[in-house]
Amino acid sequence: MFLRWRFSVHVQCPQDGLYSVGAALRHTEVLLSLKHFLPGLLALPIVCGYLAWTYHQRQQATTLELEHQAKEIRKAEWYNKAYGSDELKITVFVARSNPIRPGQKGLLCYGVQNATAVRLDPPVESIQPSPTRCFSVSAAKTTTYKLTAEDKAGHTVEQKLTLFVQ
Fold first, then answer.
1. Residue 52 sits in which domain range?
2. 31, 49, 83: which is the final residue of a domain?
3. Which residues contact 123 (CB under 8 A, 6 or more apart)?
């Protein structure tokens, strides 16, 4: 008994297009016997399993990559909320010991973001742009300090702080 035997397997993969595995026995007369039919029958599940495994691995890699990208985006959003983006900003300007006694030293702390220059009036010491920096000051009377930060475009922001002397 002779039959014409033809088969093909199609697996759709969105990234790569269409996988297609076809038998080499198309339009060929094959004697329907276990000797000829068994190798093709065994190859079909192996090929289908391999294609399904490959597709699953690619999907899993894509999913992991998307999760990693989402995590990086959340981290960048958190950073921008906490520290701003390219905006010139004075993040902190505080007196750690306030009030102080006459002649006693106090601690002033400041932090700036995206600044190229920083000034303190009245000047106490030379200061540089920094995310966080503290230095000692002493005052005989209550003093208001003004911190001014400037960026490379010439924009400025300022903040005032009063150190009380009692």
1. 2-83
2. 83
3. none
Q: Are both 11 and 54 inside the same structural domain? A: yes
Dump pLDDT digits (tens) for 114-161.
899 999 998 888 899 988 888 888 888 899 999 999 988 899 999 999
- Same domain? 22 vs 58: yes
* Higher local confidence (pLDDT), 103 or 36: 103
What pLDDT was estimated at residue 107?
86
From 68, 83, 98, the end of a domain falls on 83
If asked whether residues 6 and 66 sit together in one domain, one would say: yes
The tokens for 139 are: 């005052």
Report the C-alpha dihedral over residues 24, 26, 28, 29, rounded to 10 degrees: 110
